[in-house]
Amino acid sequence: MLTLLAEKDSYGYQLTSRLSDTIGIAEGTVYPLLRKMQDEELVSTYLTDSASGPPRRYFKLTKAGQRALAAKRAEWKAFKTALADILGDDE
Question: What is the pTM of this model?
Fold first, then answer.
């Protein structure tokens, strides 16, 4: 989710839809993760009026969230390299 929020601020339903379509994560998983990230100050929120109903709560990546994302990307890169070594992939 940090990567998605690095691209643009999003409200919960947008994130849920994208994650559900891409990797099958359910709504019941997304909102607790967003709350946890907010508690850890990785994301902040703000309300924006909506033409189709009540105001929407948007989530925005904080500076701490940007640092956490950079760390996770470095971890993922190291993991991919180690896995490629194990599997004998040349990537």
Answer: 0.81
Say yes or no to pLDDT of 19 above 70.
Answer: yes
Report pLDDT digits (tens) over 26-85: 888 999 999 999 999 999 999 999 888 899 999 999 999 999 999 999 999 999 999 999
CATH number of the domain to which 25 belongs? 1.10.10.10
Candidates 25, 30, 26; CA nearest to 10 is 30
Q: Which domain covers residue 27, as residue numbers?
A: 2-87
In this structure, the strands spanning 10-11 and 43-50 are unpaired
Instruction: Read off the tokens for 82.
Output: 């180690």
Give backbone dihedrals phi and psi of 59, rounded to 5 degrees, phi first: -110, 135
Taking the C-alpha atoms of residue 2 and residue 7, their distance in angstroms, rounded to an integer, is 9
For the record, the structure tokens of 40 come out as: 């850890």
